[in-house]
Amino acid sequence: MSTSDNRRALISLIDNQQLYPLFQPVVDTTRGCVIGHESLIRGPKGHVLEFPDKLFSVAHESDLLSELELACRYAAIKEFQRRGMTGKLFLNVNPNVLKDDSHPHGSTLRLSQQLGLDPHQIVIEISERYPIEDTENLKEAIIHYRQLGFMIAIDDLGAGYSGLKLWSELHPDYVKIDRYFIQDIHESSVKRVFVQSILSLAKNIQTKVIAEGIETKDELEQLHALGIKHCQGYLFGRPAKLPARDVNTSLLNTYQPTKSSYHETIASVVNSLETIADDEPALEALNRFTKNASLSLLPVTRYQQVVGVLRREKLLERFSGSYGHALNASKHVVHIMEKEPIAVDWRASLEDVSQLITEHEETDVYQHIIVTRNNRYYGVASIKSLLRKITELKINDARHANPLTQLPGNVAINRVINEKLKAQTPFSVAYFDLNHFKPYNDIYGYEQGDQVIKWVAQLLQKRLTGCSNFVGHIGGDDFVVIFDHSAGNAGLVENSCKNVIELFDRDVIQFYQEEHIKLGGIKAVNREGHPTFFSLLSIAVGVVSPDAKLCESHHDVALLATEAKKEAKRFGGSHCYLCHRQAPRRLKLVSSHS
């Protein structure tokens, strides 16, 4: 087709409203729910302009970008509402359209108002794939969108033109990491470092990170280990007219957060509470609050799924005044409820929920959290009870923490292992032990020895503390790291431990005098009282993956890990030994008559 034919075809699609959206879910794996959908526009099937690359290429050549953008937004918002979808609607926007003077200002707000979608549900995605010539005008446009209530995301971060500069200047609510950095991330240390850097930046400036293009469980497990919780990709659902609204629970099994020893789940503080259907009249809700003075919240459900909440004080405020009763009594609950309450899966750890409410701008201590199970209503937990529980656990942990490193001690370590055995959750234990630490202490003194211990603790925390790892200090120069993972993931654990060994061997010389560095060790008295040469400090690591069916308690796991650590120490220098046995050797009882 000629350029003019393409232009006429595009105008026809726009005028006849033949463009339609596909939706792909964006998932929060901590809460176990779909938080929104990205709209991906299509032309009629088999049409020369069916796919977006051709659509937008023709629009650019024909000077119809603004018209196409508005048609795409209209189609997406209209279909989103028609299907009764909830959560966020992520809309892709060419940044150069936003700064185009001919682009009608306020059009997206008018569309959302016309079609009945709250602006705060819409996330404007600015793609980094387009060159941006005028960032000042773009910033003004983004500020304008924010003032209208829309959220902002940078899409395809790392794909090209201006990512970090755009991020620093726009302060987006979300950044979406380009799929190039997600593909096979479990096999690329460079990609892992990139994603870790993005997460660190995002945490400091309070931006949420979404990993795009996730296609395999291996990729998902690695992202979980790094701390990514917002995910998108074929693994969770392909773009479709009828989008996925639930999360495949088998994918959530890879996420068993245990960042600290107070990793009990939100289920421990859940209370049951009556609910109200979204098609009930508001007057019914008012009557329930009136009859029950202690009732402060009503979760609103549709087919057992929570779609919103009614809070006592806000509902009473609606019904107050001269016309409050007349205006609201016959309205359905769905039209007056608060949408998108804080909701988490019943398996979410207390610490993860605590972090979630900290990130939530409008949270107060008297609010409640909706708790779901298999995406259905399970109960509510008050933020006050959550904070009280965490405080109790923190106090208990502090009582048993190692006084030198403040890491959880044996009590917490044993508890975590016992809980995993009871739940039959796949996990690995890495036992870290320093070689030649006693002679080092004899030569350099206990104060210097303590500095080494604290440095090792910091190294383990920095390199191995992820959303699924637990770092504990047994005592002296012995440490334990507990890794959560799916079966067959021991290779990742081994690689992480080898990375620690590499850093340890590189940096341990900072604790030695120059003469000992040149000699490669120190001369000291051995345990038998004989002068002996000891090489520089090294670190032995024994890694085991216990079988919960064969290990009865933390005692069995400790025996197994100790055996693996002894094998690692036999190699002399720093070494990681991966033990393939999943239970300790049992002592055979010998009969006195034999």
UniProtKB/TrEMBL annotation:
Gene3D superfamilies: 3.30.70.270, CBS-domain, EAL domain. It comes from Idiomarina zobellii. The keyword Oxidoreductase does not apply. This is Diguanylate cyclase (GGDEF) domain-containing protein. Residues 269-327, 337-398 form the CBS domain. Residues 3-253 form the EAL domain. Residues 425-581 form the GGDEF domain. The keyword Phosphoprotein does not apply. InterPro entries: CBS_dom, CBS_dom_sf, Cyclic-di-GMP_PDE-like, EAL_dom, EAL_sf, GGDEF_dom, Nucleotide_cyclase, Rev_trsase/Diguanyl_cyclase. One of its GO terms (molecular function) is cyclic-guanylate-specific phosphodiesterase activity. Keywords: CBS domain. PANTHER family: CYCLIC DI-GMP PHOSPHODIESTERASE PDEF, SIGNALING PROTEIN. Coiled coil: none annotated.
